[in-house]
Amino acid sequence: MLKRVSHIVLFIGMLTFLGTSPTKSQTTDKTLARLSVYKGDTIAWIELKPVYIYKPLIFKSKKKQNSYNRLVRNVKKTLPIAKEIKQIIIHTSMHLDSLPNEKERKKYIRQVEKKLKKEYTPRMKKLTFSQGKLLIKLVDRECEQTSYQLVKSFMGSFKAGFYQTFASLFGASLKKEYDPENEEDDAITERVIVLVENGQI
After folding, report:
1. In angstroms, what CA-CA distances link 141 with 55, 126, 134, 147, 185?
2. E-assigned strand segments in the chain
């Protein structure tokens, strides 16, 4: 009887998570069903995501609440871009390490810069000023380097200084660091990021 029940549970589990496989990695957000054998019975089980609980925010005004809601929207829009930039940095660094000389590296950097401008300029133009400033901080969060440091390491001090000067004309700074432990605004941003990444908001 126990074996029959366990087979029914297993069958329901397989139907519930149809299309998943315990031996294949998932590239989507689908929940992965795993199988375990316990005392001769095969049991389907899943590992649930952690749920993060924060103390409820108390807004002193409608303006403060609207500001928080805007931050949530901005994080959802800019965080994926920051994560893309991180992957580009990793890929570019690995490829540069494989090139034989400085001439080839500079040539590759020019190609990457041209490609990035073509792909990202239209997307950057759609960002608001506050989203652009947030993206600068999120790049520092994801890459553990400021945007200024990244530009300097890949394109040199001159271009880093040029882009920094250009950004400063609009009241922004590529040297802006992300510091959720000491900056209240960044601490709120980190809270939003954690909840967004976990699908809780």
Report:
1. 23, 22, 11, 10, 14
2. 33-38, 41-46
Q: Which comes out higher in pLDDT, residue 19 or 149?
A: 149
**Total count of residues recorded for the chain:** 201
User: For residues 162-183, b (16+ Cβ closer than 10 Å) or e, as one string?
Assistant: ebbeebeeeebebebbbebeee
In the chain, what are the domain boundaries?
2-46, 62-197
Average pLDDT over residues 79-88: 93
Question: Residue 73 has which token pair?
Answer: 């929207």
Amino acid at 176: K
CA angle 19–23–26, rounded 5-degree value? 55
112: burial class by Cβ within 10 Å (0-12, 13-18, 19+)? middle
Q: Which two tokens stand for residue 23?
A: 């031996």
The model's pLDDT over 5-61, given as tens digits with 9 standing for 90+, comes to: 333 333 334 433 333 334 444 444 555 678 888 888 888 888 888 889 999 999 999
